[in-house]
């Protein structure tokens, strides 16, 4: 890949700061506190809007998800990096996405929201961050043992790669029209709770298009940045992650939204053990799947159907998490959620040991 500003050392710092600042600012604009952009939480809201779960407080078609896909697709087409491909271990990728979502909803946030929670003064976020780092480290161990999900193949039919964009446009139409397909049926929109807290559609859409564009250009990845800096001594992406936190922190300070404490944080619980363990699962699943949730969305927009399968696994996981009482609340994790995290860790460890370069298909 050609070296340019976006992939330079200064570039990744600027882009990390831009993403972090916009993410924090979207909370000022109306999104939930410390949740300006959370791919896991917003995918959960989308699952609720589509009726995959019926938790009334978390149902909304988030324009941020739509904007990420649109922005990244535009960027990939301009830079000629739009390459439709896929077919490497799709079922395993689906399951990794599923369990990554379970871990995120037991913690109450994906890696992006983990950084935002830390930048907002939520001490619980630090334990989630530790969990991501541990999970990433376990993933690196498997990589060094020749872990592989196989190599994707280029599709002859290039139109396949536009599927995420087509779905994003359909979702945007459904959002704008507030479509109801039947009495008492989807599309659902929360009237209270986190799902009802939202920035104006136009602002959220434009902001996320910008994020999608620059994230695609820079290959920005939160899990990759934490993992590479600590375990591989490659601090390129780490600089972007640090810039993300610093910029979000500055926005929070400037808008009087910083609150250093462990108790009474927005949409968070204080169970240190499960804040950590659940994010070990999430960090490991994203590392084995080769990208944080934002990166998976961006790669989907580039035509990578393997990443798109991972995202679909996240969507289904969100539905399961609320239908089967796996997701945590501010009161803490559920017994079922704890069990699902352990099951996910077992799955990831088995996959890590058994999927090797010479046996992957």
Automatic annotation (TrEMBL):
Alphabetically sorted, this entry's keywords are:
Membrane, Transmembrane, Transmembrane helix
| Pfam families documented for this protein | Sulf_transp
Q: Does the keyword Membrane apply?
A: yes
What residue ranges are annotated as transmembrane? 5-26, 60-79, 91-114, 126-143, 155-176, 196-215, 236-260, 272-293, 305-324, 336-355
> Does this entry carry the keyword Chaperone?
no
Q: Which domain of life is it from?
A: Bacteria
Per its record, how is this protein called by name? YedE family putative selenium transporter
Give the species this sequence originates from.
Brachyspira innocens
Q: Give the gene symbol.
A: yedE
